């Protein structure tokens, strides 16, 4: 069972270079910039957000998930400049099995500087230590080499390869599922 106290007051997080705060409707323009960018969305297998209204609806759905205790969505902010960099999420939170799926985006201008690894360390520490999750899951497009690389660097293990299990944009697509157990994460930090 997860520690549900974090659904009473949103858990803002902070690291050396980042602030992870609640994703708000006022972030819609920034979310739209990221989620309409072909470089970011190429392997997301979801509709690009071409309008701010689309992003407002997206954020509203994420805020509702927090109210329903099934998701936590953070805005990733660069501490030194206060720039919106991307977002990070626990979603499909399974209280009974203490499991959550992760999702993340980052503006291309911030790629390759260790920001996502820093965000992951912060969020995973919170998830395993405070929220009391037992495991995390990531579902990626098999062509997304960058996502696979950071997941394996963070200790995720490939659990499954599903053939044509996801229908998007007129095609059936494959998926890879990765997971990280709390015990494996704790061992990797030693």
From TrEMBL:
KW Transmembrane helix (keyword) present: no
Single GO term (MF): acyltransferase activity, transferring groups other than amino-acyl groups
PROSITE patterns linked to this entry: GNAT
Pfam families in UniProt: Acetyltransf_3 (PF13302)
Gene3D superfamilies attached to this UniProt entry: 3.40.630.30
The N-acetyltransferase domain, residue ranges: 18-174
Keyword annotations of the record: Transferase
Name of the protein in question: GNAT family N-acetyltransferase
Organism (species): Gillisia hiemivivida
């Amino acid at each position: 069972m997860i520690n549900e106290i974090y659904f009473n007051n949103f858990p803002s997080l902070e690291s050396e270079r980042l602030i992870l705060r609640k994703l708000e409707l006022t972030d819609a323009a920034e979310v739209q910039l990221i989620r309409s960018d072909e470089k970011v969305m190429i392997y997301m297998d979801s509709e690009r957000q071409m309008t701010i209204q689309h992003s407002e609806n997206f954020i509203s759905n994420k805020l509702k998930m927090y109210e329903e205790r099934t998701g936590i969505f953070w805005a990733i902010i660069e501490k030194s400049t206060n720039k919106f960099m991307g977002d990070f999420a626990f979603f499909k939170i399974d209280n009974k099995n203490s499991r959550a799926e992760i999702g993340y985006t980052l503006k291309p201008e911030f790629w390759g500087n260790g920001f996502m690894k820093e965000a992951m360390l912060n969020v995973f520490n919170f998830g395993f230590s405070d929220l009391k999750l037992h495991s995390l899951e990531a579902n990626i497009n098999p062509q997304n080499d960058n996502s696979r690389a950071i997941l394996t660097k963070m200790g995720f293990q490939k659990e499954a390869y599903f053939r044509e299990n996801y229908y998007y944009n007129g095609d059936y697509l494959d998926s890879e599922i990765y997971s990280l157990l709390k015990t494996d994460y704790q061992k990797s930090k030693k």
